[in-house]
C-alpha cells in the first residue's frame, strides 16, 4: 500500500471518473471528451471531485451539520411511538431523507417517497450499469429506475431547486453547467454523488447500531461517556446533545465507530496504472494495468492490528494505549491506523467522512440514551448482506431487521435537542 502511495500521479483513479461518467451518467461523447481533457492539467472531472473537499468542510459543513441535526431530531422523537420497527428500513429512510434534504434543499426530489424507493431499486444493481453488456437488457429495472430518478432531478434543476441547496450541490451544478451540460445531463451526472452520499452511510449506521446494542457492557460504557461528556440539561429540563462534545470528548464512541467500519468494510480500492512503474524495487506494473487493494483483508491484517485483528475491540482506536513493559513500567503506545481503509487510501480520502460521521454518531448517541433496542426474538444474529451488484463498501443488509423499541425510564417524557458549535465539525478519524 505504501509503495502505491509513492506514485500518486502514475497510479491513479482518474480513468475511473471517465468510465463512471460514460456508463453510469451516460454523458454524451463530445462532452465527456471535454470533461476528461488533460491537455492543460487535471481534467474538469477530477477538479470537480477535488473541489468536493472544501464544500464538505468548514462553514459549508457547519451549515450541513446544523440542518442535519435539526432534521434528525423529529425522526428520533417519533421512534418512541412504535413498539417495534424494522431497524434496517428505519435507518435507511432517516438517513436518506435527512442527507438529501441537507444536500438538495426545499425542492429535494427525495421528498417524494416514490423517488426514494426508486433510488434504492437503482442502488441494488447499480454496478450492472457499469458493464458494457447491454445493461438495459440484463438490468431493465435498474435502467428504468435511473431514468425515473434522473427525470425527477431534471425537474428539480429546471425549477432552480439548487438555489437553496448545499454548497456541495451549488459547486457541482455550476461546474457542470459551465462545462456545457444540459439540465438532463447534470441530472444524470448527479447519480454518483447520490450513491456516495447514501450507499455507505446507511449500512454503516446499521452496523454501528447492531454492534453497539448487541454488546450490553460497551453500550453502558458509551451511554455513560455521552451522558458525562456530551449531554447538557438546560434549566427548562431540555436534554441537549452537543455534536462538538461527541467529537472532542467521547473517544470511546468514536473508537467503537471506527472499529465497526474496520470490521464491516468490504472496500476494494481500485487504481489504474497510467505508466510503466516498479513498486518497492520489486514489482513491475505495466501501463494500463488495474490494481486492486482489498481494504477488508488489509483492515484485518495481524501486522497492523496484532493478534486480535479478527476480533471486535471497541477500544482499538483510542488515541493511545497504555501497556506495561517487561520492567513493569507503564508505556504509552500510539494509536494504530495503518491498514484502516474504510474511508479510502491517501491521497484519495472520502471527503464526506466528517458529514457521515456526524450523522451516524448523533443518531446512535441519542438513540442509545433514549431507547433500548433488541431484536424481536432477542437474538443478535447478524442479518444477511445484499448479494447483488451494489457499489456500497459497507455490506448493506438484505431485508428486514425487526427490533423492539422501549423508551428508557430514566429519560421518559424529557424534551430533547441537538446542538452544534460551528468550526467543530471535523473528526480525528484514522485514514490509511
Ligand atoms: C460511512 C460513510 C462513508 C464511507 C464508508 C465512504 C467511503 C469512501 C471511500 C472508501 C472512498 C474512496 C474510494 C476510492 O478510493 O476509490 C470514498 C470516496 C468518496 N466519497 Fe465517501 N464514504 C462515506 C460517505 C460519504 C458521503 C456522505 C459523501 C458525500 C457527501 C461521500 C462522498 C465521496 C466522494 C465524492 C468520494 C470520491 C473522492 C475522490 O475520488 O477523491 N462519501 N468514500
UniProtKB/TrEMBL annotation:
The keyword Oxidoreductase applies. It comes from the Eukaryota. Its cofactor is heme. Keywords: Heme, Iron, Metal-binding, Oxidoreductase. Gene3D superfamilies: Cytochrome P450. The keyword Iron applies. One of its GO terms (biological process) is mycotoxin biosynthetic process. Heme binds at residue 350. GO terms for molecular function: heme binding; iron ion binding; monooxygenase activity; oxidoreductase activity, acting on paired donors, with incorporation or reduction of molecular oxygen. It holds the Pfam family p450. Belongs to the cytochrome P450 family. This is Cytochrome P450. It comes from Penicillium hordei.
Amino acid at each position: 500500500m505504501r509503495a502505491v502511495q509513492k506514485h500518486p500521479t502514475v497510479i491513479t483513479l482518474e480513468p475511473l471518473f471517465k468510465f463512471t461518467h460514460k456508463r453510469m451518467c451516460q454523458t454524451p461523447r463530445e462532452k465527456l471528451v471535454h470533461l476528461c481533457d488533460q491537455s492543460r492539467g487535471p481534467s474538469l472531472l477530477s477538479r470537480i471531485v477535488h473541489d468536493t473537499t472544501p464544500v464538505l468542510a468548514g462553514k459549508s459543513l457547519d451549515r450541513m451539520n446544523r440542518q442535519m441535526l435539526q432534521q434528525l431530531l423529529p425522526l428520533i422523537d417519533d421512534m418512541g411511538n412504535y413498539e417495534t420497527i424494522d431497524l434496517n428500513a428505519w435507518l435507511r429512510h432517516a438517513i436518506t431523507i435527512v442527507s438529501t434534504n441537507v444536500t438538495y434543499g426545499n425542492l429535494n426530489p427525495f421528498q417524494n417517497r416514490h423517488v426514494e424507493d426508486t433510488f434504492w431499486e437503482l442502488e441494488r444493481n447499480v454496478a450492472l450499469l457499469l458493464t458494457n453488456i447491454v445493461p438495459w437488457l440484463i438490468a431493465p429495472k435498474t435502467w428504468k429506475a435511473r431514468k425515473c430518478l434522473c427525470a425527477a432531478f431534471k425537474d428539480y434543476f429546471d425549477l432552480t431547486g439548487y438555489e437553496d441547496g448545499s454548497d456541495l450541490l451549488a459547486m457541482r451544478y455550476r461546474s457542470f453547467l459551465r462545462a456545457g451540460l444540459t439540465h438532463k445531463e447534470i441530472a444524470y451526472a448527479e447519480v454518483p454523488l447520490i450513491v456516495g452520499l447514501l450507499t455507505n452511510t446507511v449500512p454503516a449506521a446499521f452496523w454501528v447500531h447492531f454492534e453497539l446494542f448487541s454488546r450490553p457492557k460497551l453500550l453502558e460504557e458509551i451511554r455513560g461517556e455521552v451522558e458525562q461528556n456530551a449531554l447538557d440539561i438546560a434549566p427548562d429540563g431540555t436534554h441537549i446533545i452537543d455534536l462538538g462534545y461527541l467529537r472532542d470528548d467521547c473517544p470511546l464512541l468514536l473508537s467503537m465507530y471506527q472499529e465497526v467500519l474496520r470490521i464491516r468494510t468490504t472496500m476494494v480500492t481500485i487504481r489504474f496504472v497510467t505508466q510503466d512503474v516498479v513498486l518497492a524495487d520489486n514489482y513491475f506494473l505495466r501501463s494500463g494495468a488495474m490494481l486492486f487493494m482489498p481494504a477488508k483483508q488489509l483492515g484485518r491484517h495481524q501486522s497492523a492490528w496484532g493478534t486480535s485483528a479478527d476480533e471486535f475491540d471497541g477500544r482499538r482506536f483510542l488515541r493511545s494505549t497504555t501497556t506495561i513493559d517487561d520492567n513493569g513500567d507503564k508505556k504509552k503506545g500510539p494509536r494504530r491506523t495503518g491498514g484502516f481503509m474504510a474511508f479510502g487510501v491517501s491521497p484519495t480520502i472520502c471527503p464526506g467522512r466528517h458529514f457521515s460521521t456526524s450523522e451516524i454518531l448523533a443518531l446512535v448517541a441519542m438513540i442509545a440514551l433514549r431507547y433500548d433496542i433488541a431484536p424481536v426474538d432477542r437474538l443478535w444474529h447478524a442479518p444477511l448482506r445484499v448479494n447483488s451488484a451494489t457499489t456500497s463498501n459497507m455490506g448493506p443488509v438484505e431485508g428486514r431487521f425487526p427490533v423492539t423499541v422501549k423508551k428508557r425510564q430514566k429519560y421518559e417524557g424529557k424534551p430533547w435537542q441537538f446542538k452544534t458549535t460551528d468550526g467543530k465539525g471535523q473528526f480525528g478519524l484514522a485514514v490509511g
